[in-house]
Amino acid sequence: MNKKIVIIIPVLIIFTFTSVIIWAYASGYVGRTLKTSTQGCGGCHSQSTSVIGNIIGPDTVNTGDTVLYTLRISRSGTRDGGCDIATRWGTLSPSPTTNHLKIVNGEITQLHTISFVDSVDLIFTYYAPTNPNTDTIWAVAYANAWNHAPSKRVFVKQSTGIENNSEPIENFNLNQNYPNPFNQSSVIKFHCSTNSDVQLKVFDMLGRETVTLVDKKLAPGTYQVNFDGNNMTSGIYFYKLTAGDFSAVKKMTLLK
If you average pLDDT over each of 151-155, 242-246, 252-256, which comes out highest? Predict the structure, then answer.
């Protein structure tokens, strides 16, 4: 009987210790990106080139912009996923549409193990700094092994209200705002084909005008305006472009 006890107890101890190692960071861990470490998750997990992480989003933003980015984690098969996302100058937060991410010490990681098949998109919000700069977003992608995602270089330029790219334009056009939905600010781009008196206005669901973004004569070209919804409530809004005989309306969603 004593021999059986001596044999069984070490086996139970080994099994318990192994379980702790496997699940120790299911609720997230930060400080693993290339911002602070080259080791990644190497302390507990193996690195694998079969884990592919890509940071998807614009390369150029304006100062003070609020922009949605996506960390796409890919690895064939059924996987348990996680992440660590960091930035040098900007500020990060989980997207309002994502319920399995959290902020820890300014970095984004998972609330719990994220189960997926082949790939998963983790959406997060990037708040650009108020001064022009070149920023970097780093990420570690985890899918039963880990790998560094290629670093994302973000050029933060000074916002100057209406920006004009005076390339030849054949027709008037109003683009969908980006990002949409958005948290605080979004970019609206439109095209003018001739010299025109241009108005760009925002309306609420009841058709009430909330703000005029543009009301002036513009030369032909492509323009973009940064719309700041910081002082507005969450909801659906419409923006309308009027230029001569041309008129177009599009819908955007503000989430806070």
Answer: 151-155
pLDDT value of position 200: 94
Coil, strand, or helix at residue 4? helix
- Tokens describing residue 74: 């890919």
- 64, 185 in Cβ contact below 8 A? yes
User: By three-state DSSP, how is residue 20 classified?
Assistant: helix
In the chain the domains, ranked by start, together with CATH numbers, are 24-157 (2.60.40.10), 163-254 (2.60.40.2550)
What length does the chain have?
256
- List all residues 6 or more positions away from 13 whose beta carbon is below 8 Å from its beta carbon: none
Q: Distance of alpha carbon 70 from its chain centroid, rounded?
A: 5
Q: pLDDT by residue (tens digit) across 179-194? A: 898 887 888 999 888 8
Q: Of 88, 56, 92, whose CA–CA distance to 72 is shortest? A: 56
